[in-house]
Design brief:
A six-stranded antiparallel β-barrel has the order 2-8-11-10-9-12. Strands 17-1-18 form a three-stranded mixed beta sheet, with no helix packed on it. A three-stranded antiparallel beta sheet has the order 3-5-6. By secondary structure, the chain is of the alpha+beta class. It is elongated, with a radius of gyration of 41 Å.
Length: 340
């Protein structure tokens, strides 16, 4: 009985030692796999001049927009144009009721007739110079009133443009809205909001390129015509007007456009887009730089994308070696083996 027990104990000890030995081998194998170098492709960081083209979006607007309305309430007698008509500066667009205008003209004629009589009476001493002066002042006031009535009875176009809106018909009494709207469509403009960091680089007269979705294959040339002198405190942007020639009349107000401004060149790193990885759970981007045979996590700031490459604004130095392939699932500090 004792002999059987002894054999069982010996057998258990041998089994335990064997299990420990196998576990040790598996641990060694796992450790070997964890420290095995990942094979990667790399490229050297080279700085080069990169065009700083910045794109902004906006809607096309007319260069000038005039609402045609009278400051004096009066009934519309005649509208001489329709929507879409081209008009010239000074062209009569709308004629309103002329009763007040005719009355004012008659009053001025009476004043002038009285002035002629006053002048004769003054020569013979029938009236004083003061009376003549008072009548002359009345005539000036009446003529100014007549001019105002003419401007608000015979409505003329202040610009060369196109009629883009009509809100009333003949016989209506205009109230809330303008009778017509006239807009100048050559040139047209776009107003963009530019980040304050570019304020020193944006100049009046600077050429720009404009792309319009309606004409996707065409590029229109424009220039910066106005730079607003203040920065919006909420958005940290400043408004900038872009003037776009429209000789062909193809561009219409309301069209969506993209404005591209060239802000010169900067020496930047251009790297393969496959080298850039997005940090999970954030909007950060990073690459792996090879140092002493290990992959080093390096956060970068991206600029523009050019074909299959990214401009790197910050985070890399000239001659850094970055991993372009084999970086999937790689961790900071992992050993790597360069294969190209």
């Amino acid at each position: 009985m004792k002999k059987a027990t002894f054999l069982i104990i010996i057998t258990g000890i041998i089994f335990s030692l064997s299990s420990c030995n196998n576990a040790g081998k598996k641990g060694d194998e796992a450790q070997t796999n964890e420290t095995e170098a990942r094979k990667v492709n790399v490229s050297k960081v080279v700085f080069q001049p990169v065009e700083q083209n910045v794109t902004f979006t906006a809607n096309i607007e007319s260069n000038t927009k005039n609402n045609i309305a009278s400051a004096i309430p009066s009934r519309i007698r005649k509208i001489n144009v329709e929507i879409g008509d081209r008009v010239s500066k000074g062209q009569v667009l709308v004629e309103l009721d002329k009763n007040n205008l005719l009355k004012q003209e008659a009053q001025i004629n009476n004043f002038k007739a009285d002035l002629q009589r006053y002048t004769e009476l003054l020569k013979v001493g029938g009236i004083s110079q003061q009376q003549v002066d008072q009548l002359q002042l009345q005539i000036k006031i009446a003529e100014a009133t007549l001019e105002n009535l003419e401007e608000n009875t015979i409505l003329k176009s202040p610009i060369n443009g196109v009629v883009t809106a009509r809100n009333y018909d003949e016989g209506d009494m205009p109230a809330q809205f303008p009778i017509l709207t006239v807009e100048s469509l050559n040139p047209v403009k776009a107003v963009i909001n530019v980040s304050e960091k570019y304020f020193a680089q944006v100049k009046k007269g600077q050429p720009v390129k404009v792309k319009i979705d309606t004409y996707s294959d065409e590029v229109f040339n424009g220039n910066i015509s106005l730079i607003y002198p203040i920065i919006n405190q909420a958005t940290h942007t400043f408004s900038t007007e872009i003037s776009i020639p429209n000789n062909s009349n193809k561009i219409k107000p309301g069209m969506f456009c993209r404005v591209e401004i060239n802000l010169g060149t900067n020496d930047r790193a251009l790297i393969d887009d496959m080298a850039v990885i997005k940090q999970s759970g954030s909007n950060d981007r990073y690459v792996f730089v090879v140092k002493d045979g290990k992959a080093v996590y390096t956060k970068v700031e991206l600029g523009i994308r050019i074909d299959d490459k990214y401009e790197i604004v910050s985070g890399l130095n000239p001659d850094d070696i970055i991993i372009t392939k084999g970086n999937t699932g790689l961790v900071d500090g992992a050993p790597v083996e360069i294969i190209d």
